[in-house]
Amino acid sequence: MNRLPKHLTRLGGELWLTDDEPGLLTSVRITDVLFEAQSPFQHVMIADTVPFGRALILDGIIQTTVAEGFIYNEMIAHVPLSVHPRAERVLIIGGGDLGAAREVLKYPFVRSVDLVEIDQTVVEASRRYLPEIAGEALDPRLRLHFEDGARFAARADGPYDVIIVDAADPIGPATVLFESPFYEALARLLAEDGLLVAQTDSPFHHPETARRTLRALEALFPIVRPYLAVVPSYPSGLWLFTLASRRYEAVRPLDPGIRTRYATTDVMRAAFALPPYVVERIRPEGPSG
Ligand code: SAM
């Protein structure tokens, strides 16, 4: 490899990808770059990593990996599908690796999944290089829309039973997916007993994202409950999601026919138990991050 792929550095003959949090660099060793493209929205890369296997990397940030991407995808999909008693119409915003869609489609009562991804390159690269995450077969219930999620939400009809916001970090094209007008549009799209789940960033490194999201959702929904998962490839590992609901909040038992590797009924219920230091960070009066 003569030209150094974007976002990688060569150290003693090895390639490293470095994630840059304020005051903290985390580096992952890359053994092979399988795909690299600059799309109109971001730099898209598929690479083999030493600790996490094959990974989808957007603008130099790991999004999902073969070794542990199931943790994030199961927790963003099975929690809402277990809280809502029978979600037939599901909307996913973002999620171009198709991992969340794949989990949602495990439920036989789901009749349609609209997935709105801004960047077609992410879907094509994931289908080609990450079949373990994206799934190999095309499910006729899945409809792909290549469009900005905020624009789709502003013009779509609904109603949806469950909406999943599987957005990248709140920088670049995903910034709009963390703002109040977007959540207001989603609230309009939900059925009267509908609910949504949004990924809410690292409560350790970016508690301000959680605070902003909680404030926006609490103005719109009577039930707003953050929950945690441990995702080893994300900075600090600790990751927050937020459930916002009009009626349902209890996690019902997962159907034994649905196979998961992280999201069991017990794990999903326990995920809502937040350590006090996390609550301190994400409440409105918490540290500025
Ligand atoms: N699991 C990931 C994480 O939190 O690191 C996120 C998964 S998924 C890859 C995020 C997707 O959101 C990306 O494919 C990105 O292209 C898409 N995206 C970013 N901004 C968007 C927007 N405004 N509308 C729709 N999709 C968007």
UniProtKB/TrEMBL annotation:
Q: Which SUPFAM superfamilies match?
A: S-adenosyl-L-methionine-dependent methyltransferases (SSF53335)
Q: Gene3D superfamilies annotated for this entry?
A: Spermidine synthase, tetramerisation domain, Vaccinia Virus protein VP39
Q: Which GO terms describe its biological process?
A: spermidine biosynthetic process
Q: In which pathway does it act?
A: Amine and polyamine biosynthesis; spermidine biosynthesis; spermidine from putrescine: step 1/1
Outline the extent of the PABS domain: 14-246
Q: Which reaction does it catalyse?
A: S-adenosyl 3-(methylsulfanyl)propylamine + putrescine = S-methyl-5'-thioadenosine + spermidine + H(+)
Recorded GO MF terms = spermidine synthase activity
Quote the record's binding site residues for S-methyl-5'-thioadenosine: Q42, E117, D148, G149, P173
Supply the EC number(s). Answer: 2.5.1.16
This entry carries the following GO cellular component terms, namely: cytosol
Coiled-coil regions listed in the entry = none
What keywords does the record list, in alphabetical order?
Polyamine biosynthesis, Spermidine biosynthesis, Transferase
InterPro entries per the UniProt record, alphabetical: PABS, SAM-dependent_MTases_sf, Spermi_synthase, Spermidine_synt_N, Spermidine_synt_N_sf
* Active-site residues, as the UniProt record annotates them: D166
Q: How does it assemble?
A: Homodimer or homotetramer.
Q: Which family does it belong to?
A: Belongs to the spermidine/spermine synthase family.
Function, as annotated: Catalyzes the irreversible transfer of a propylamine group from the amino donor S-adenosylmethioninamine (decarboxy-AdoMet) to putrescine (1,4-diaminobutane) to yield spermidine.
Entry protein name: Polyamine aminopropyltransferase
Gene responsible for this protein: speE
